[in-house]
Write a structure and sequence with these properties.
By secondary structure, the chain is mainly α. It has helices at residues 2-21, 29-43, 48-65, 68-74, 82-96. The chain has one domain (23-96). The termini are far apart. Keywords: Signal.
């Protein structure tokens, strides 16, 4: 009986680990990302609805794969690390490109 309880507790803990690894966006950064992302997408001819959907997906992908410090660096005013930007683009593309 104790083994089952231990296994259940271990399984629940394992499911929560990815949630603990997620970073919160620095204050105001997520809203700024969404506004800029939607603006750029709509300027490129994407519908507002599709732009919003894609940008929300991108924001979630960034949140799941980057630390708060990395997210802060992606919006750095003194230059963004090229490798970090490439990683962000790859993560968003993999998470948000529709397969069809």
């Amino acid at each position: 009986m104790r083994l089952q309880s231990l296994l259940a507790l271990t399984a629940a803990g394992a499911l929560l680990l990815p949630m603990a690894a997620q970073a919160d966006w620095p204050a105001g950064k997520k809203d700024a990302y969404m506004q800029q992302c939607v603006q750029v997408a709509t300027q490129q001819g994407v519908s507002a609805k599709d732009a919003d959907t894609h940008c929300k997906c991108g924001a979630q992908a960034i949140e799941k794969n980057f630390s708060k410090a990395e997210i802060e660096d992606l919006d750095s005013k003194d230059g963004v690390d090229a490798k970090l930007m490439q990683k962000a683009q790859t993560v968003v593309k993999q998470a948000c490109t529709t397969k069809g």
